[in-house]
Design brief:
The complex is a heterodimer. Chain A is mostly helical. Helix content of chain A is 76%, strand content 0%. Chain A has one domain: Helix Hairpins (Orthogonal Bundle), CATH 1.10.287. The longest helix of chain A is centred in the last third of the chain and has 31 residues. The radius of gyration of chain A is 18 Å and the shape is elongated. By secondary structure, chain B is mostly helical. Classes of the chains: A mainly alpha, B mainly alpha. Chains A and B meet through helix 1, helix 2, helix 3 and helix 4 of A and helix 1, helix 2, helix 3, helix 4 and helix 5 of B.
């Protein structure tokens, strides 16, 4: 493991922030431009993972294991969220025969 | 093994994340998402967060992706049944995302956190170390998260179950 971790020695923290920012924004763009509810869910997963990676990088930077424990909790939360969300999508599909979010505009003025 | 490994994996992460949101077929999106999560696992290994790497591998690439694929196959969405948003909304969405990137990068530059990442203790992310923290400092949140998972399970079953016709 020694030589594997050698690879990050010297990567600035800035570049981790940059990477996670870009992936988070890709998730936001995905939510904005897609109409399939399942793809929107996948974009949300991308955002959660970007935040997880950033938390781990900061945890390593500050030499504090609490950040990695927090990532563990976020993963448990993501699992619960996906289970409930996909159940809702299945229910929507049963009612409207589609997972298009544009059909679900009944609450729009 | 050099510093460029990080940049190569980071490039792959961004590339496959872009493919996730621009792939036409949702099944392809799920497969690209699996590859993206695999690159995240490599990032965790590079940070020597071995516990998180394994959990990411098992929970995300194993459980959550199977759930996605399962629902996708179950719903049997044929291609093209869901149109895409109009080009105007697409362009506006991309511009909004770019604005978000610029704002966040600008604020990160003000932070000036450019010192290189140094692994101070080698066993920071190992199971032994994390377990000690998890079961001493974070014991209560750990137990509460079990209730969260239980309630999510009950909710999922309740939502996905067919309604019984009332007599």
């Amino acid at each position: 493991m020694e030589n594997v971790t050698q690879a990050i020695q010297g990567v600035p923290l800035n570049h981790y922030i940059l990477l996670c920012t870009i992936i988070f924004s890709i998730g936001v763009i995905g939510v904005l431009i897609r109409r399939n509810a399942i793809v929107i869910f996948m974009s949300i997963e991308l955002m959660l993972n970007a935040v997880n990676l950033l938390l781990t990088a900061f945890s390593v930077q500050h030499n504090d294991p609490s950040g990695q424990v927090f990532v563990f909790f976020i993963m448990a939360l993501a699992a619960a969220e996906v289970a409930v969300g996909l159940a809702i999508i299945v229910m929507i599909f049963r009612n409207t025969n589609s997972t298009d979010v544009n059909i679900l505009n009944k609450l729009k003025w | 093994m050099s510093i460029s490994l990080f940049y190569f994996v980071a490039f792959l992460s961004i590339f496959f994340a872009l493919l996730v949101i621009f792939a036409k077929n949702p099944v392809h999106s799920v497969l690209y998402l699996i590859v993206t999560f695999f690159t995240f696992t490599i990032h965790y290994i590079l940070l020597n967060a071995q516990f998180l790497a394994i959990v990411n591998f098992i929970v995300y690439m194993g459980a959550i992706m199977v759930l996605f694929l399962f629902v996708l196959m179950l719903l049997n969405l044929n291609e093209g049944s869901i149109g895409s948003k109009s080009n105007l909304i697409k362009i506006i969405g991309v511009i909004a995302g770019m604005c978000l990137i610029i704002t966040l990068v600008g604020s990160a530059r003000v932070l000036n956190a450019s010192e290189p990442l140094v692994l101070q203790t080698q066993d920071l992310g190992l199971v032994k170390n994390l377990g000690k923290v998890l079961f001493s400092k974070f014991l209560l949140p750990f137990e509460v998260s079990s209730i969260l998972l239980l309630s999510a399970m009950v909710g999922a079953v309740l939502l996905a179950k067919k309604e019984i016709k009332q007599v």
